Amino acid sequence: MDNEETWLPTTDLVFVDAMGTGYSRPATKDDGPKFWGSEEDLTAFTEFIRAYLVKYNRWLSPLYLAGESYGTFRAAGLATTALNSAGIAFQGILLISSVLSMNTLWDNSSANHLPHLTFLPTYTATAWYHEALTPELQQKPLREVLDEVEAWAMDGYASALAKGERITAEERADVAAALVKYTGLSAEFVEGCNLRIDDGEYRKELLRTARRTVGRLDSRYIGIDRNAVGARQEFDGECSSPFAPYRTPQRSCLLRSGQRRDHAGLRGVLQRLHRARARLQDGAPLLPARRLPRLPLALSREW
């Protein structure tokens, strides 16, 4: 299947695993603390980029840095560290699913209203996709709807939350009506949330009457819950649905490229990997360092 959005025709993509994740492991367990700190992390990434540019003679190539989710923290810090310590300047930085302030993600304090403001447009987009908004909003283009709700969130909603218990009954009713309009939720639910909607509860509530939930990272996905009651979803379709489409062609490719089509060997490697993942629960490394160099060989030959 062709991917019209791929970057491959115009750039080389270099994926780097932070130390302790993916395929990156310290040589010994005692070396971990050398990398596990804010400054240590940025220094390690800077050195990797510098070494890559030297090894492949790419100093004159345009260089772009992309960070996703928590990686946007790293991308922001790395831009300065790489320039100041190694003279590496990026032509551009891409922040994907950006989070530069944790205050925008979690409501750890009743005085922190930012998550309610920043999550609201996502609630609106989700409801629009699942056709849960009013006919007036459903017939508008999504971007137009989002412009409207974003403007209200920074004006009317932010002001109302800042007033706390001093908000008047009339103001509260206006805010509740607007939240019902922009989220697709019931007035009773919005009032029960005290005008502050938790994202986990939203995923359960939006399609509750149909015994359906929406995905956490991609709310276009739908999950099916056994019970319509409760505050949290039982099953996240978004987390489970991509597994087979990703894993099936991956395993097929590995089997085709291997010297043996050994399905028993494939199961054995999978079982060892699952056991290795379980080690994380005890705080142990994902795989013993002495076995890491053999893992790519095992994947190519045994699978």
Report on the structure:
This protein has about 300 residues and is mainly alpha-helical. The chain folds into 3 domains: about 30-100, no CATH class; about 105-240, no CATH class; about 245-300, no CATH class. Helix content is about 50%, strand content about 5%. It is built from 12 helices and 4 strands; from the N terminus they run H-E-H-E-H-H-H-H-H-H-E-E-H-H-H-H. The chain has a two-stranded parallel ribbon with strand order 1-2. The longest helix has 22 residues, at about 140-165. The radius of gyration is 24 Å and the shape is globular. The two termini are about 25 Å apart. The relative contact order is 0.06.
**SSE string, helix = H, strand = E?**
HEHEHHHHHHEEHHHH
Mean pLDDT: 82
Q: What is the number of helical segments per DSSP (H or I, 4+ residues)?
A: 12
What strand order characterises the main sheet? 1-2
Range of strand content: 5-15%
Cα(first) to Cα(last) distance is 24 Å
Rounded to an integer in angstroms, the radius of gyration calculated over CA atoms is 24 Å
Give the secondary structure arrangement, pairings included.
Elements: H1 38-55, E1 64-68, H2 71-86, E2 92-96, H3 114-129, H4 135-138, H5 142-163, H6 169-183, H7 187-192, H8 199-205, E3 212-214, E4 222-224, H9 237-240, H10 243-257, H11 263-279, H12 295-301
Parallel strand pairs: 1-2
Antiparallel strand pairs: 3-4
